């Protein structure tokens, strides 16, 4: 596990982000921590946008009771408290199913307790890890969680992982038919497997990835909205704007202005 440097987001919450071990890089996008008892106690509501991933969130002050999974298919508002130490694992799309045999549909747009989501044997192993977490040390706590995940990765069932092969080679300009061709299966089979393993239809997943890329380009470039729309796989600017408003909650022009103005809101 290695900490990312130069992270500027959520600084008022003591936010830190970490890269996973190489063996878990295909399952885990990142770990993060927020909260520090030395910080002023403030509550902060932040907008989180969907991208097909699932989160395991743990309040270090009460880890045995708080460990829960959440998979968002729409944007969501989370309230963080700066003085409450919290850690999280951000799983890549499809990882929840591959590691635990559980579909993200089980926690779609819900916060579901790990006790209710995991199989008894899996939860027993997690409990032994949670009992060792240190509320004063997020780094050591995340290291213990990573060891639990490494053990789970070794125990996970092997076999063909068509969905991950599609995701790893996916272009945002692709369509569902092309995704099925890459996987070597029918469109109907792809729809079923994506729904089970990722929690989204392939078309929904594509839309989320296109919006994720568009948000980055809006914040980091001066390209026109029309150019960004086409480069991110949308038919035209109107299609882009409609999709962006539906997932982000504001037009791309306003999102760009807010990001470039330095007003903090992710």
From TrEMBL:
InterPro entries documented for this protein: AraC_XylS_family_regulators (IPR050204), DUF6597 (IPR046532), Homeodomain-like_sf (IPR009057), HTH_AraC (IPR018060), HTH_AraC-typ_CS (IPR018062), Tscrpt_reg_AraC-type_HTH (IPR020449)
Gene Ontology terms, MF aspect: DNA-binding transcription factor activity; sequence-specific DNA binding
Protein's UniProt keywords contain Transcription: yes
Xref: Gene3D superfamilies: Homeodomain-like
UniProt superkingdom: Bacteria
Keyword set, alphabetical order: DNA-binding, Transcription, Transcription regulation
HTH araC/xylS-type domain span: 160-258
Protein name: Transcriptional regulator, AraC family
Lineage: Bacteria, Pseudomonadati, Pseudomonadota, Gammaproteobacteria, Cellvibrionales
